[in-house]
């Protein structure tokens, strides 16, 4: 106990530098093969895989350890259709009226449009909600901290876990996303953050041949 709160001693495992380099390189190579896909197989897989993915996501750090997120997992066909219909309605409006010419030009190489069939094809949809506050049993509101940052970190862990499980995903952000709270009947303290279809890639799944920025473009070292 420290100041009346339970603590456990964290044992850092000492590793050989060569093993550290090899392990970090292997993880990088694995994650570098990750791609966002829009062509999913309808093939299902055990629910336990999704449960382990969500548990991994929930190991992400969060402000004051509040873990201000809710992962809603949708596999019901009727609900998936409702989500697709509502998402396509918003996306059609965005592509036709809301997006700037520059935005549309940047999207053109990715081949996207307002049609989102993957929202029905993928066996699971994980809808991530952020919780700006908690509702206590007596009705009081208790604040959460760094909600967007914490939920974003959890989503990063979530995507890594999905890839590690041999699955594919897409970070879908129909805007505005308020329809997700309505369709899934979520409480007032939850706001839609991200919509992630999860499954296996379709047999014929084409993805853009992207080139990621090099280390010198994404990092600055002060030595």
Task: Give structural notes.
With 223 residues, this protein is α+β, with helices and mostly antiparallel strands. The chain has a single domain (39-204), classed as NADH Oxidase (3-Layer(aba) Sandwich), CATH 3.40.109.10. The protein is built from eight helices and six strands. The strands form two sheets. The chain has a four-stranded antiparallel β-sheet. A two-stranded antiparallel ribbon has the order 3-4. The longest helix is centred in the middle third of the chain and has 22 residues, at 77-98. It is globular. It starts with 16 loop residues before the first helix and ends in a 5-residue tail after the last helix.
Task: Give structural attributes.
223 residues; alpha+beta; NADH Oxidase; two-stranded antiparallel ribbon; 6 strands; 39% helix
